[in-house]
Amino acid sequence: MTLGERSGSPPREQTLAALERCHLLDGLSQEQVHKIAARCSVHHVPAQRTVFEEGDESRGLWVITAGRVRLQHLMADGRQHAVGFRTPTTALDLAAALDGRPYMETAAAVEESELLLVPRDLLPELARRYPVTIRNAIASLCIDVRQRDITTAIAAVKDARERVGCTLLQLVREFGRTTGRGVRIDCRVTRQDIAARAGVTVETAIRTMSELQQRGVVCTEAQIVEITDVAAVRELARCGSCQFECSVFAPAARAGAPQAARVSRR
DNA sequence: TCATTAACCGTCG
DNA sequence: CGACGGTTAATGA
Question: pTM of the full predicted structure?
């Protein structure tokens, strides 16, 4: 049992609001979403606790309603490869929920988090009653496939320093906010996190980050990374000589939502 | 616990 | 050979 304790109480306002913003349910009315929520369970997961593990039987679809979750893969050498960090309104491992096969990766709460579990037997019903969710699911899966394709391609084609550069740029895509000096990655990221995501050791991540820091390209304070010279990072990652469509790492656009900082292409 | 530095060492082009 | 990057160890915050 890897799960945090369950809260029996019905979903709170904030939880419902997060579910409403889950892309899988795009196009459903508030009332419809609330009816679905009534059949979900709310789970509070303390920091560091695992929500589910790679290989576990899928229990349904997990949707983050608060906190932050890291998705990771166990590699042959025992190290963890961080697939990415996920924030509220994101559904975790949709593929496993849909095909009922075991989870493809481990989900661990980075900070205290809250997740909603849409029970597995509710999913076919959703598809039947709200065909739009099928379109939404396909869109989500496509993004997933593209992200994974890029990730594996990068692992094969880029060297360690370049991968650190790619990781920084992906984080900017996911969490970047423009500031006076440049762009800030708006969530705490340890050197270890960067290393796990780039598929390098901490020391290599530190080597690269230190070099960037000395060149005045980035600065870090309390695990918040700010990039003052995005062009230099793009150069480090050799963005110019690769054609991967990294825009798939950006959160899906949504009317009325605050726009994250963009990384200009080319 | 996290960050950093440095020496060391194996692999590969 | 030499660059790269992983390993190990020591140190400080």
Answer: 0.87
> What is each CA distance from A63 to A40, A51, A113, A193, in whole angstroms?
10, 11, 11, 22
Distance A81 CA to B7 C1' (A): 27
What is the C-alpha to C-alpha distance for residues A3 and A13, in angstroms, rounded to an integer?
Answer: 23
Residue nearest to nucleotide C8 (CA to C1'): A203
DSSP-assigned letters across all residues of A110-179? SSSEEEEEEETTHHHHHHHH-THHHHHHHHHHHHHHHHHHHHHHHHHHS-HHHHHHHHHHHHHHHHEEE-
Tell me the average confidence (pLDDT) per consecutive run of 10 residues in chain A, 266 residues long: 50 88 95 94 93 94 95 84 92 95 94 94 95 96 92 90 94 92 91 93 94 90 92 91 87 58 55
Residue A203 (CA) to nucleotide C7 (C1'), in angstroms, measures 10
Question: Nearest nucleotide by C1' from A201 CA?
Answer: C6
